[in-house]
Amino acid sequence: MRPFTLVSYLDANDRSRPGLALGDTMVAWSDLATAHGLPLAEATMPELIAAWPMLEPRLAAVEDGSLATPRDLAQVRPAPPVVGGGLFCSGPNYRCHLNEMTAGQRSDIDKKVAAPFFFSKPAVHSIIGPGAPIVLPAGSHKLDWEAELAVVIGRPARDVPVERAMDHVFGYSILNDLSARDLFRREEWPGWLDWLSCKGFEGSAPLGPAIVPAHQVADPYALTVRLWVNDVLQQEASTDQMIFSIAEQIAYLSRRVTLRPGDLIATGTPAGVGMPRNVFLQPGDVVRVEIEGLGIGPLVNPVVTHPLHSPRSLQP
Predict the structure, then answer these.
(1) Which of 28, 43, 201, 306 is found 20 to 30 A from 115 (Cα to Cα)?
(2) Residues 32, 197 contacting (CB under 8 angstroms)
(3) How far is CA 299 from CA 80, 129, 157, 176, 205, in A?
């Protein structure tokens, strides 16, 4: 079977179902499993990922010509490729982004004494799929973008050492870690940070359009992350600029929580976000993210007005 990616689509009952994308076509996992006597025909994407070590050898024997009836990928309704139990987002993990957000005051960070910094988003609320609208959060006028390589966990990971951490990676995708910069600090709670309002609001994590199995990515540190707003390039950097490697991030997280199949790690964003320049997303904008070397994408999402915004309140 030739190389494929994993996607999710909405069926007639608006349920998210997994599928295999081959070029411009998609085969529903339920159809493929039924046609070839494979188990878990009704599996969700996290269930499919968890069972992958058992399924992959059997899939390798499936000939392209014997696939169940393919569907035109452009004609199916896309869904986020996976919505697992956890979405863990790295804080500054590209030195260029760390410098732009701190005006160079933390450029002396030392990996020998420092560890990755993470926050989490409520995955079921935050993750939206390709083409889904980014809704400006109510009360925010400073919605920012952050293009990131997303790592999809394939095997449970708890207290794993760095040297074995990559064994737990199922694949990779594209994520946009949106931030409502003006909702982070609140006057009535001095000294406290409102992570939910700033980072975890509804639809704050566009993801997709597919998952690339890890074995199809020869070097995850030889990828180029790019983001455009209305066809204007805002971010561009190689993943080789990460401060902490994917393995280091997995090892660190696994000491805090048990990572499970379908969980996501957003591995950090490069320089080029809007906040240092006081440039933010507006209704009518279109955000496009690509990661050259993954062979998927782009991830495209339009920006729309929140129903609680009045035209007047949209002005900075």
Answers:
(1) 201
(2) no
(3) 11, 8, 28, 9, 11
C-alpha 215/C-alpha 205 separation (Å) is 25
Measured between alpha carbons, how far is 251 from 206 in angstroms, rounded to an integer?
A: 25
Using H for helix, E for strand and C for coil, what is the string for 244-298? Answer: CCHHHHHHHHHCCCCECCCCEEECCCCCCCCHHHCCCCCCCCEEEEEEECCCCCC
114: CB partners within 8 A, 6+ apart: none
DSSP designation for 7: E
Task: For residue 163, give both structure tokens.
Answer: 């040297």
Non-local (6+) Cβ contacts of 225 within 8 A are 147, 148, 149, 235, 236, 237, 238, 239, 269, 270, 289, 290, 291
